[in-house]
């Protein structure tokens, strides 16, 4: 697709645009959805498109071109130009990165075996059967295979290519109406794919969750399963973008250099993580992706930035462009040194939450939110687990981070419908978490 | 649309027992303004074809944005192959309900066609919000405003004779406003005003007035807000709060695909079971309707994305569960006809069971009558945080703008009253409903990949008796 990119760049320069970024995609995606132990639909998407960003005297615009004929490309550029001429400039625009750059191959991000995989249904059956073996009655979920080529050309000398693959499964297992469990597995190379573990975990939690009692309310020590904590960190990932902070969507506003979490907490964005579902070689302006420490031992170190926002704040890009809106690639909560058993035995009377969904904020800048545990929820008393139901986590995101008392030593990479930015996290013990429930 | 007919023919030739092809084209612009700075222009121009087939009782879907016979033919081949393979992992074949199909064409007219206006002229709407908010004198240090317009063109063809062509323009303005006064901060996030139609609808709606009302209410909340009463009180909910409540706790749990488990892994299941048709879920005064045909509504359509004619759906009538939302697959499972609730966000998405414009039907009380005999209560005007469990039974709504009601009068603002309640308790507690209906836009999320479709939510004011309210 570089020929298309070159043509767009050439024409854009001829028309007088300043900064130009052309990001071409060639994508093959396959999906198998299943429910009630059977496949409900199988899908295939093939897509070629170009995301285009242009700048004209500090006026910026973007579009996606899906019809890549020369005629349509020229028409699109002329439309952008005529639309931009009357616009007011974006005064805080400070340009894109100066290339070229050197890129390293990132291990475990490409696997021909995934491209050549003819029929992924056997993996679906493996996951369903594992869940059924654990005692589930109904199993639902989704499997994806991905193959994506990225072609980046910019007016600042970048020409970069990245090709990636992926395969992932999300499995939810049910016994009755109130007993369910969830497991996921997301990897970039076929030999690491483990649909059985996802099905088995879903089935096992569903089995443990049988005959739940109404849960209590108050403040409790809570063990968050990686699946549950990944949800909170995925919502938080947006708040680490400098753009979100300026727009009033982040509890991290005005907190640079301040303590925002327990000293045990180090949170990073790792764009170049081997086998990470969000991993890419470069960001949208061609800067090689890297590891950026957002929170270090509880102290907030940096927002995620692109070149323009970095210049605005007198610092360096963190390689997280999004040209308008920087964003995270793979959020990582560094693990601790507790075994899972030690974590559970640490809790005299608390709650184990295996999954949450529907996280919503009352106030983004304050960080006040609630989220609903779903699937198995358990009262933990002296190492014993007793299933409960119908509770809600109602608290504040910064307070949750400050309340982290222990971190498991094993990390899990989570990506599914409710965790759109991939998150790697261990089991997390948080003290004094607000729990509420409906009383009518 | 020869390519669509070609796709359907090819699918049948390859062994499909049913085939449909849908062309969608979306054109539009969006603009953002952050703290007074224009954030740039986004131009949308997207089109493609989605093909869905049934083969041996399995379902396959493929889409392409390369509009050539070769590419469409390849997509058909993939859809058929996927459907065949899927049929082997099924307990029973998928069947569709029998429906009457039409050859029709319809469109929503624009008095002020947004295509005739430059981005700069559209940006004036956002500038007007900025100016009006500033003119209030309230300190609003973070202001994030967006404008977007899109013209949705669709053509749908299936192997049973349907041909539906439509053209629906949509315009929308959203804002996030953070008020800091007296060292305290309050926020009105993701507030949206949105319609199907031309620019004249946004101008008539005057989103700047909504923004001004919000920041003034938040300022007043900061200076005069007190703790809400706790424990059992009466609660009057506004059309906006009634809207989110009917959407979350009536619309979603009545989706037949969810009831029968198809969404179990993502959006969840439902506390409602097929056998609950005819059961009481609310008081006599509660009637909830979902109606895609409301003119200029954000969730407007006249034919769904399976070619079935749309009509109002009475989900609850006088407190009784009367109808589920269905598409052809789930209507067949329930032994019914589809009520036209199949929607797809775009050409590259499958049609699934969705809401359109869901509302609490009006009753016979004026607002004054609703509050006149309340000794102690709360009037919840708008909300921020809300959520509900994945069976749609345990929910929570927190008031943004809310007031104390004392001896039949609206008094001072109250901070964050929390309604955390079960679906049955909520609708059983309603003893009176107001006369006037209002609607509020939203984006309804469901499906995987997620399909955020435009919906309206609303209704009349409603009075709930003896409700356990909480404080933060």
Describe the overall structure.
The complex is a heterodimer of chains A (440) and B (472). By secondary structure, chain A is α+β, with helices and mostly antiparallel strands. Chain A folds into two domains: 1-205, 2-Layer Sandwich (PmbA/TldD fold), CATH 3.30.2290; 212-439, no CATH class. Chain A contains ten helices and 22 strands. In chain A, strand 5 (159-174) and strand 6 (180-187) form a beta hairpin. Chain B is built from ten helices and 24 strands. The mean pLDDT of chain B is 97. In chain B, strand 16 (383-388) and strand 17 form a beta hairpin. Chain B has helices at 2-13, 69-87, 119-135, 199-205, 207-224, 239-251, 256-259, 328-333, 367-371, 423-428, and strands spanning 18-34, 37-55, 58-64, 103-107, 142-158, 163-181, 184-196, 231-237, 288-290, 313-317, 320-321, 342-343, 352-353, 357-360, 376-380, 383-388, 394-399, 402-406, 409-413, 418-422, 430-433, 438-444, 453-459, 462-470. In chain B, helix 3 (119-135) packs parallel to helix 5. Classes of the chains: A alpha+beta (440), B alpha+beta (472). At the A-B interface, strand 1, strand 2, strand 3, helix 2 and helix 4 of A face strand 1, strand 2, strand 3, helix 2 and helix 3 of B. Strand 3 of chain A pairs parallel with strand 2 of chain B, so a sheet runs across the interface.
Low-confidence runs of at least 5 consecutive residues of chain A: none
Helix content of chain A: 10-25%
- If you compute it from the alpha carbons, what radius of gyration of chain A comes out, rounded to the nearest whole angstrom? 23 Å
- Broad shape of chain A: globular
Q: How would a textbook summarize the main sheet of chain A?
A: 10 strands, mixed
Q: Tell me, rounded to a whole number, the average pLDDT of chain A.
A: 97
Count structural domains of chain B.
Answer: 2
Structure annotation, total helices of chain B: 10
Helix content of chain B: 10-25%
Number of domains of chain A: 2
| Unreliable stretches covering 5 or more consecutive residues of chain B | none
The assigned structural class of chain B equals alpha+beta
Backbone CA Rg of chain B: 24 Å
Report the span from N to C terminus of chain B: 57 Å
With helices defined by DSSP (H or I, 4 residues minimum), what is the helix count of chain A? 10
| Tally of strands of chain B | 24
Oligomeric state, counting identical vs distinct chains: heterodimer
Domain Metalloprotease TldD/E central (chain A): 115-208
Domain Metalloprotease TldD/E C-terminal (chain A): 218-436
GO molecular function, one term (chain A): metallopeptidase activity
Organism (chain A): Thermococcus guaymasensis DSM 11113
């Amino acid at each position: 697709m570089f020929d298309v990119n070159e043509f767009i760049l050439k024409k854009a320069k001829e028309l007088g645009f300043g900064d130009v970024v052309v990001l071409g995609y060639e994508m093959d995606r396959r999906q198998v959805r299943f429910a009630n132990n059977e496949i409900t639909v199988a899908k295939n998407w093939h897509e070629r498109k170009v995301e285009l960003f242009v700048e004209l005297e500090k006026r910026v615009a973007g579009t996606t071109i899906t019809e890549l004929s020369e005629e349509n490309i020229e028409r699109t550029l002329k439309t952008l130009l005529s639309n931009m001429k009357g616009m007011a400039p974006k005064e805080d625009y400070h340009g894109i990165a100066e290339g070229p750059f050197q890129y390293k191959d990132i291990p475990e991000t490409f696997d021909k075996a995934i491209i050549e995989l003819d029929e992924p249904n056997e993996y679906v059956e493996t996951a369903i059967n594992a869940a059924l073996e654990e005692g589930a009655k109904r199993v639902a979920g989704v499997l994806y295979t991905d193959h994506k080529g990225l072609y980046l050309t910019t007016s600042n000398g970048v020409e970069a290519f990245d090709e990636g693959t992926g395969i992932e499964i999300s499995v939810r297992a049910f016994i009755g109406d109130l007993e369910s469990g969830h497991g996921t597995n997301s990897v970039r190379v076929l030999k690491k794919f483990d649909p059985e573990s996802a099905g088995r975990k879903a089935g096992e939690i569903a089995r443990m969750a049988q005959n739940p009692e109404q849960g209590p309310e108050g403040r409790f020590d809570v063990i968050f399963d990686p699946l549950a904590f990944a949800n909170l960190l995925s919502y938080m990932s947006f708040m680490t973008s400098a753009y979100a902070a300026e727009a009033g969507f982040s509890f991290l506003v005005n907190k640079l250099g301040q303590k925002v979490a327990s000293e045990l907490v180090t949170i990073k964005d790792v764009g170049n993580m081997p086998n990470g579902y969000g991993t890419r070689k470069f960001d949208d302006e061609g800067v090689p992706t890297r590891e950026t420490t957002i929170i270090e031992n509880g102290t907030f170190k940096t927002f995620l930035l692109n070149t323009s926002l970095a210049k605005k704040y007198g610092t360096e890009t963190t390689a997280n462009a999004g040209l308008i809106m920087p964003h995270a690639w793979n959020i990582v909560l560094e693990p601790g040194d507790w075994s899972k058993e030690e974590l559970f035995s640490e809790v005299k009377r608390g709650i184990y939450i295996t999954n949450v969904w529907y996280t919503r904020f009352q106030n983004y800048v304050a960080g006040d939110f609630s989220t609903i545990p779903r699937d198995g929820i358990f009262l933990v008393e002296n190492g014993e687990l007793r299933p409960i139901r119908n509770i809600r986590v109602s608290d504040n995101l910064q307070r949750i981070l400050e309340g982290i008392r222990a971190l498991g030593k094993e990390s899990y990479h989570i990506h599914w419908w409710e965790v759109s930015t991939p998150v790697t996290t261990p089991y997390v013990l948080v003290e004094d978490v607000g729990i509420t429930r409906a009383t009518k | 649309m020869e390519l669509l007919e070609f796709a359907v023919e090819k699918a049948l030739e390859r062994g499909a027992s049913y085939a449909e092809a849908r062309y969608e084209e979306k054109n539009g612009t969006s603009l953002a303004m952050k703290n007074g700075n224009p954030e740039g222009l986004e131009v949308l121009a997207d089109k493609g074809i989605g093909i869905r087939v049934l083969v041996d009782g399995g379902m396959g879907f493929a889409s392409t944005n390369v509009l050539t016979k070769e590419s469409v033919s390849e997509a058909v081949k993939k859809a058929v192959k996927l459907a065949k393979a899927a049929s082997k992992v099924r307990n029973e074949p998928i069947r569709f309900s029998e429906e009457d199909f039409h050859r029709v064409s319809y469109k929503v007219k624009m008095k002020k066609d947004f295509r005739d206006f430059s981005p700069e002229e559209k940006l004036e709407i956002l500038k007007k919000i900025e100016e009006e908010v500033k003119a209030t004198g309230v300190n609003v240090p973070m202001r994030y405003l967006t404008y977007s317009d899109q013209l949705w063109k669709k053509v749908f063809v299936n192997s049973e004779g349907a041909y539906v062509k439509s053209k629906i323009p949509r315009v929308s303005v959203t804002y996030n406003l953070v008020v800091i006064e007296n060292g305290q901060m309050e926020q009105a996030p993701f507030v949206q005003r949105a319609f199907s139609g031309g620019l004249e609808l946004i101008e008539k709606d005057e989103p700047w007035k909504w923004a001004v009302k919000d920041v003034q209410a938040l300022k007043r909340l900061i200076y005069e807000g007190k703790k809400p009463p706790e424990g059992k009180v009466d609660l009057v909910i506004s059309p906006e709060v009634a809207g989110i409540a009917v959407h979350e706790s009536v619309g979603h749990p009545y989706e037949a695909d969810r009831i029968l488990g198809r969404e179990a892994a993502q959006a969840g299941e439902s506390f409602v079971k097929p056998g609950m048709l005819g059961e009481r879920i609310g008081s006599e005064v509660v009637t909830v309707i979902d109606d895609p045909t409301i003119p200029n509504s954000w969730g407007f359509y006249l034919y769904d994305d399976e070619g079935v004619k749309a009509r109002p759906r009475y989900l609850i009538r006088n407190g009784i569960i009367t109808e589920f939302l269905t598409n052809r697959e789930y209507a067949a499972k329930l032994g019914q006809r589809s009520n036209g609730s199949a929607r797809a966000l775009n050409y590259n998405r499958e049609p699934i069971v969705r809401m359109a414009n869901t509302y609490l039907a009006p009753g016979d009380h004026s607002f004054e009558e609703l509050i006149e005999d309340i000794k102690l209560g709360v009037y919840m005007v708008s909300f921020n945080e809300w959520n509900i469990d994945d069976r749609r039974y345990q929910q929570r709504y927190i008031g943004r703008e809310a007031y104390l009601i004392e001896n039949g009068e609206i008094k001072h603002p109250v901070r964050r009253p929390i309604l955390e309640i079960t679906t049955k308790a909520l609708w059983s507690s309603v003893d009176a409903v107001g006369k006037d209906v209002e609607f509020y836009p939203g984006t309804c999320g469901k499906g995987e990949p997620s399909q955020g479709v435009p919906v309206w939510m609303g209704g009349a004011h409603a009075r709930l008796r003896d409700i356990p309210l909480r404080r933060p």
